[in-house]
Amino acid sequence: MKNKILISGNEALAEASIQAGCKAYFGYPITPQNEITAYMSRQMPEKNRVFIQAESELAAINMVLGASAAGVRTMTTSSSPGISLMQEAISYMAGDELPCVIANIARGGPGLGNIAGSQSDYFQSVKGGGHGDYNLIVIAPSTVQEMIDLTFTAFDVADKYRTPVIILADGYLGQMMEPTTIIEKKETLHVTKDWALTGAKNRTPNAIHSMYLGDGALEAHNEKLQRKFQKIKKEFCLVEEISTNDAEIILVAYGTVARICKSVLRKLRAKNIKAGLIRPITLWPFPEQAIKKAASKAKFLLTIEMSTGQMVEDVRLATEGKAPVYFYGRTGGGVPKEEEIISIIESKL
Amino acid sequence: MEKKFGLPKTMKDVVTHYCPGCGHGVIHRIVAEVIDELNIREITIGIAPVGCAVLAYDYLNIDMAEAPHGRTPAVATGIKRVQPNKIVFTYQGDGDLAAIGTGEIVHTAARGENITTIFVNNAVYGMTGGQMAPTTLIKQKTQTTPFGRDPKSAGFPLRVPEMLKSIEGAVYLARETVISPKNIIRLKKYIKKAFVLQMEKAGFSLVEVLSPCPTNLRLSSIKSYDWVRENMLLYYPLGEIKDDS
């Protein structure tokens, strides 16, 4: 039997990052993710790795940019307002083709909002919160175990595709404690970073930049980036499907809300209502095919979010009009309740 | 025949985009000569700013990154911390360092980050076409101070090394200019000292360079040099402002 430990989502993510080979962590305090920064401040120096509490999220993400340019695995973590501040550098890193992991333990907005968990940063993460033509790989864990497992995945795909990866969790997932399998050093992807800034010894100098001034140069660079994003879409999409085979009603939810929907599913099935769940694990690339397929035989889909309706737009697009898509959301720290979801479904039957 | 003078190894053999009379070419060359003389080209990493020197990576024959506007010292910090034995420097203008990036330069100095900053102050925004800089002089006309900089509405010019002087992590702060060979020789001495201090892991060093911008001062090259001498030097005294080495 595998040993289990009781650990919070934030600490699990921090420890997994260390095990995944994160050599440099830069952060700035913000609730509800402070446990990560605190954990790293103790653990990273003990392992002779880099920890800096930066003077701002602007500085933190640009330190990440520097460390990534130097060729090491690096990350920052923050929560919604802090992630907003980082958007400029995230856009630069997408243009620079620099890998890194950014965890957003999201809280309610807009503005200072509150410190309760929220899913209202979906648009920012998936549609590109910064300027320019780019996408980010966005991974949404749903359990503390996934805060570990998907952190390993995040570092690997960041390196594989040379691109920033967002782990989009929320304050509830960050704060909750669950028994998880002890985090063990796993095999992680090793790539040669011959583009890194390590000193131009016995080679021509490397330059990391996102500026292309020549006639047509930026268009060519952006087309190259788009080819990469298309490749990611083809190769990397994670989704969990439960009871979708015979489902007439499809729930679509991610992260914390998907946990609630799993209970809802059991209760609906007990009432002989044929419901299934599609849980996107990657929010970008979005599991369009799974939703399209389910929509072709479903009576309707219901998207449930801790937002006023963000992912639902991608669900609607993916169905290609094959079935109606309804939405239920709670905002500002509100969490959809099982009975609320069940009563909506029953009212649509 | 022995070659007495040529292109430093640290400079690429290319034509720069800098305007005639601009100080950047001279400053690039001095930095390159210092890197050559210290024999650190293969372990040096530079960070270009947003501003006229944004393309420095096309001119300097070393590994370089280009940072978001003002975040240059933060990028340098990330590079240096994971490679503490490399020589890391930022090359920043007055807008990058003393306006949008004030927070980063202050805290990079406060951490005593073992990097060197070359701070080019020409009292005006160059790349965007001549707007007020944080170092624009009182009464100086720019695109956005058409009646001359009025401290009542636009504030006072920042003296950066003097401002950083009280920070314990800043070990070496100096200011020179490129307007005469004598000044250039002294400037090179300061820049070399800053790099040597970094090699000795002494802490944060910064050399400010007063530099002419004939295009945006709307002056001929020669008159722009006179303008620096007759105006900037009065407000920005030259010399080693702090030397804790």
Please, could you describe this protein's structure?
The complex is a heterodimer of chains A (349) and B (245). Chain A has 349 residues and is of the alpha/beta class. Chain A has 2 domains: 4-191 and 209-235, Thiamin diphosphate (ThDP)-binding fold, Pyr/PP domains (Rossmann fold), CATH 3.40.50.970; 239-348, Rossmann fold. Helices cover 41% and strands 20% of the residues of chain A. Chain A has 13 helices and 15 strands. Chain A has helices spanning 9-19, 34-46, 57-69, 80-85, 87-96, 122-126, 144-161, 171-175, 217-235, 255-270, 288-295, 311-319, 338-348; strands at residues 4-8, 24-27, 50-53, 74-78, 100-106, 137-139, 164-170, 177-181, 207-208, 239-242, 249-252, 275-280, 282-284, 300-305, 325-329. Chain A is globular, with a radius of gyration of 20 Å. The termini of chain A are far apart. In chain A, 53% of the residues are buried. The model of chain A has no long low-confidence stretch (mean pLDDT 97). Chain B has 245 residues and is an alpha/beta fold. Chain B has a single domain (24-243), classed as 3-Layer(aba) Sandwich (Rossmann fold). Chain B is 38% helix and 17% strand. Chain B has 10 helices and 7 strands. Chain B has a 7-stranded mixed β-sheet with strand order 2-1-3-4-6-5-7, with helices on both faces. In chain B, helix 2 (56-59) links the parallel strand 1 (44-48) and strand 2 (63-66). The longest helix of chain B is centred in the last third of the chain and has 19 residues, at 181-199. The termini of chain B are far apart. Classes of the chains: A alpha/beta (349), B alpha/beta (245). The interface between A and B is large, with 40 and 37 residues.
